[in-house]
TrEMBL record:
<dbReference type="InterPro" id="IPR017953">
    <property type="entry name" value="Carbohydrate_kinase_pred_CS"/>
</dbReference>
<keyword id="KW-0547">Nucleotide-binding</keyword>
<feature type="binding site">
    <location>
        <position position="80"/>
    </location>
    <ligand>
        <name>K(+)</name>
    </ligand>
</feature>
<dbReference type="GO" id="GO:0052855">
    <property type="term" value="F:ADP-dependent NAD(P)H-hydrate dehydratase activity"/>
</dbReference>
<dbReference type="InterPro" id="IPR029056">
    <property type="entry name" value="Ribokinase-like"/>
</dbReference>
<comment type="similarity">
    <text>In the C-terminal section; belongs to the NnrD/CARKD family.</text>
</comment>
<feature type="binding site">
    <location>
        <begin position="471"/>
        <end position="475"/>
    </location>
    <ligand>
        <name>AMP</name>
    </ligand>
</feature>
<keyword id="KW-0520">NAD</keyword>
<feature type="binding site">
    <location>
        <position position="193"/>
    </location>
    <ligand>
        <name>(6S)-NADPHX</name>
    </ligand>
</feature>
<feature type="domain" description="YjeF N-terminal">
    <location>
        <begin position="10"/>
        <end position="255"/>
    </location>
</feature>
<keyword id="KW-0521">NADP</keyword>
<feature type="binding site">
    <location>
        <position position="313"/>
    </location>
    <ligand>
        <name>(6S)-NADPHX</name>
    </ligand>
</feature>
<feature type="binding site">
    <location>
        <position position="196"/>
    </location>
    <ligand>
        <name>K(+)</name>
    </ligand>
</feature>
<dbReference type="InterPro" id="IPR030677">
    <property type="entry name" value="Nnr"/>
</dbReference>
<keyword id="KW-0067">ATP-binding</keyword>
<comment type="function">
    <text>Bifunctional enzyme that catalyzes the epimerization of the S- and R-forms of NAD(P)HX and the dehydration of the S-form of NAD(P)HX at the expense of ADP, which is converted to AMP. This allows the repair of both epimers of NAD(P)HX, a damaged form of NAD(P)H that is a result of enzymatic or heat-dependent hydration.</text>
</comment>
<keyword id="KW-0479">Metal-binding</keyword>
């Protein structure tokens, strides 16, 4: 799993590496700059005059030949600006015509950034921010594409981007920004570490300058994978594409340790700060391990349905649980809906579960090892049956109505929850169960690092005492102990057509099926989220929820190798 490091953690790792004597800050900055230049040429090989196209022919240099290779580097007052000075120098050494505009006070630059400022000053002039309009000189040359490097602010952004109300920027910023957006269509924008104005820990929009390509170092940060819900741009929308470049900081040997332990070992307890989150990747390793260990016990899942006319959601979940490999799946239906469900199912089993008593009786069968309550269930039935499910201490998914039924008094739910439970709220359900946490999450940010969806999901999981999967294009999964993972259906894994009625029911079924197969709750939630998106991507646009379970075998076969 790749770790998503907060700004504080990244600084801690950098400091630890420098203190160990393995590397200097200046070397790290140089590697960061090299990484950016490499990423630019990988993204746009035509910018690299020494590269050849596949047929051995020189690339088309109409727009970028000779003296027309031009870059504008916008450098800020911290080490992000320092990286920018390195990029400027490296491009200059490759024959590019480079202009550097500096926002800040050279006397106050951090030491390594200052060295690179001086190095650039020895080559070319450092222009002040107010001179940014100098770019107008190129305006008559429409053939010219300019590469704009945003090195204003990176992980050190602590407040809203200066606006025209700010005394300091009032003279420069409006014209600079207007200009910036005018040329955007033609030019290529590259952000160093983050598009300036994106909060690295939360992805929140602090007045972001969106970009074409974002190049970050060592490890991605949560803000690269979270979707900001306020402002114009933030997180994923501003970054557009994220490339991670190794700068030789080494990777923590995770071994059997949690990533938190590994980070503590690397940097010391005090420096860790906020949570370590990881990025959910393919669950093939878990699935393989599982098939070795659980060959003979595939489990028996029970999905509770709603009444007549309300059974579709539970049937979708049940189909998902079955396809993901639960040995047996039973739909627990109220007697009045029995006929309706019986007409619709084949591989699934059916059991009458009319009330709490009937449910208790059914649960006397110890082979029933995973439960799912919520999809289409109705509030009244949820309020009656959820306590029974929780008393049984079975691995249980609570979704949809099983969450909203408790919005009046969430405490009555929380006091019954235990560590074998997974809650799967979407944004609305989350806000009903955790109104104060949701309010903190959605409050317009004033200073960085801002409260993030990672923070909110962890706080919810800690309060609930169980695993919480908070849905969205950026799904965050946290356990009660505080471990956390982000599963983002973004960039090359985008699947917007997954936002279709009933797809959440299938996800609940996938998680339940994996719980029946013996997966631990957080692992079940992570693997199910990954497979869910993979199914949507394999099907493509036009997807309806019914398609998700049906295409799953294809994905599982692929994982099998
Ligand atoms: N931590 C690491 O391991 C590495 C960091 N590097 C670079 O260093 C960057 C972080 O450097 P810094 O910590 O110096 O932070 P930044 O360079 O991102 O910004 C900090 C500076 O900006 C000012 N500032 C913050 N928000 C502002 C706002 N809204 N308006 C005006 N001024 C504002 C701060 O007062 C401070 O002077 C990274 O993003 C990355 O580009 C790289 O050199 C490679 C290694
Ligand atoms: N833009 C998006 N990209 C990818 N997945 C998304 C997006 N929006 C929502 N989803 C996913 O779609 C599912 C919708 O679930 P939910 O909101 O419960 O809907 P329903 O109740 O109709 O099933 C969730 O798994 C969520 O993570
Ligand atoms: K930047």
């Amino acid at each position: 799993m790749s770790e998503l490091l907060t700004a504080a953690q990244m600084r801690a790792i950098e400091q630890a590496a420098i203190e160990s004597g393995d590397v200097t800050g200046l070397e790290l900055m140089e590697r960061a700059g090299q990484g950016v230049v490499e990423a630019i040429f990988e993204e746009w090989p035509e910018f690299d005059c020494v590269s050849q196209d596949a047929g051995g022919q020189p690339p088309d240099l109409r727009h970028i030949s000779g003296q027309m290779k031009r870059a504008v580097v916008l450098c800020g007052p911290g080490n992000n600006g320092g990286d920018g000075f390195v990029v400027a120098r490296l491009l200059h050494e490759r024959g590019w015509q480079v202009e550097v505009f500096f926002y800040g006070d050279a006397e106050k630059l951090p030491p390594d950034a200052r060295v690179n400022y001086e190095r650039w000053s020895a080559l070319r002039e450092v222009m002040s921010w107010g001179d940014l309009h100098i770019r107008d000189a190129y305006e008559d040359d429409e053939e010219c594409q300019i590469l704009v490097i945003d090195a204003l602010f990176g992980t050190g952004l602590t407040r809203m981007m200066p606006t025209d109300t700010s005394e300091m920027w009032s003279g420069f910023m409006p014209s600079a920004m207007a200009h910036y957006s005018q040329v955007r269509g033609a030019d290529k924008f590259v952000a160093i570490d983050f598009p300036s104005g994106v909060c690295s820990d939360s992805g929140k929009d602090f007045g972001a300058l969106p970009t074409h390509l974002t190049v970050t170092f060592h490890s991605a940060k949560p803000g690269h994978y979270l979707v900001s819900d306020g402002g114009n741009y933030g997180g994923v929308t501003a970054c557009n594409k994220v490339v991670v470049k190794d700068i030789g900081l080494g990777h923590a040997d995770l071994g059997d340790r949690t990533s938190r332990e590994a980070l503590v070992a690397l940097t010391g307890e005090k420096r860790i700060g906020r949570v370590v989150a990881s990025l959910v990747e393919s669950p093939s390793a878990y699935l393989e391990k599982w098939s070795e260990e659980h060959k003979f016990s595939h489990g028996h899942a029970v999905i509770l349905s709603g009444g007549p006319g309300k059974t579709g959601a539970a049937r979708l979940a049940a189909r998902g649980a079955l396809r993901i490999g639960a040995g047996l799946v039973t739909l627990g239906v109220p007697p009045a809906a029995q006929q309706e469900v019986a007409c619709q199912i084949t591989a699934l089993m059916l059991q009458r579960v009319g009330d709490a008593q009937a449910f208790e009786k059914a649960l006397e069968d110890q082979r029933l090892n995973a439960l799912c309550l919520g999809p289409g269930m109705g509030f009244e039935r949820a309020r009656e049956l959820v306590p029974v499910a929780l008393r049984s201490r079975r691995a249980t998914v609570l979704d949809a109505d099983a969450l909203s039924a408790f919005s009046e008094d969430p405490e009555t739910l929380f006091e019954r929850l235990h560590e074998q439970v997974v809650l799967t709220p979407h944004g609305g359900e989350f806000a009903r169960l955790f109104p104060d946490i949701a309010a903190q999450l959605h409050a317009p940010p004033t200073k960085g690092p801002a409260y993030s969806k990672v923070d909110a999901t962890r706080a919810a999981a800690a309060r609930a005492g169980c695993t919480v999967l908070f849905k969205g294009a950026d799904t965050v999964i946290a356990s009660a102990e505080g471990t956390c993972a982000v599963h983002a259906a973004v960039y090359d894994r985008a699947a917007p057509w997954l936002a279709t009625a009933g797809s959440g029911d299938v996800l609940a079924g996938f998680i339940t099926g994996l719980l029946a197969r013996g997966f631990a709750p957080k692992m079940a939630a992570e693997s199910a989220a990954w497979l869910h998106v993979e199914c949507a991507r394999a099907f493509g646009p036009g997807l309806i929820a019914e398609d998700l379970p049906e295409i799953l075998p294809k994905i599982l076969h692929k994982l099998d190798g």
